[in-house]
Amino acid sequence: MKVYMSFLVAAILLVVTKMDAQEFKGKAIYKSHRKVDLKMDDNDKNSEMKKQIQEQLRKQFQQEYTLTFDQYQSLYKKNEKLAAPAPASNGIQITISEGSDLLYKNIKEKRFVNQTEIYGKQFLIKDSLITKSWTLVNETKNIGIYTCFKATFSETYETQTITEEGKLDKVAKDRLTTAWYTPQIPINNGPEDFNGLPGLILEINDGELTLVCTRVVMNPDESIDIKEPKKGKEVTQAKFDEIMDKKTEEQMENMRSRRGDGEKVMIKIGG
């Protein structure tokens, strides 16, 4: 296997060298799937409610994104689609509200710009790209016509949970992220904020979110113009996280004050 891998890597590096000698651009289309695991009391009423909510969330978390890229820059955004009305069942209707984010990355300059809107206000998050400590794994698989290599990284991250009293509490969790990248497209980039591997990332899974590339178009006929977003109040990522925490706590307070008189559940994600 090691001998085979050596020949395979050498062959791919030859292709990479030829491609790297010329400027190229492209588009990669990704589809998302998110694992939904709700915790409720195990009585019959809550069990049925849990199934309904999970199914509605599963469908609404299925989105499509486009990564437009050249050798050093990229623009990542969600593809618009017609909103299908979600019929309420037993008084439950889940609505996912997402902002029209634009994520610009400049790999050469090691920075990103994220244009996003929350609660009617637009922000322009500017900060440095974080290079993750990837571990390269001696394992391959094909995604479409591309030979992909496996890479992983482990991290401890902070997330929020709702206590029994209905308050937000921050907890630390461990997470293993697995990526599949192809050196056949020699750019140090990928979907969302992922980067730092010797080839375009075509698949990502962090245990909850999965992003899979369904189509790649290299050097398309139509013109590709990657423009850095400019609209919104400029903040760092740390400052934006602080604002989000405050807004989330305010939303929780509003929900507690109206508890018991609503029929809809509104979940806002980044917008």
TrEMBL record:
The keyword Secreted does not apply. Residues 1-21 form the signal peptide. InterPro entries: GLPGLI. Keywords: Signal. Transmembrane segments: none annotated. Residues 249-271 are annotated as: Disordered. It holds the Pfam family Porph_ging. This is GLPGLI family protein. It comes from Psychroserpens ponticola. The lineage of its organism: Bacteria, Pseudomonadati, Bacteroidota, Flavobacteriia, Flavobacteriales.
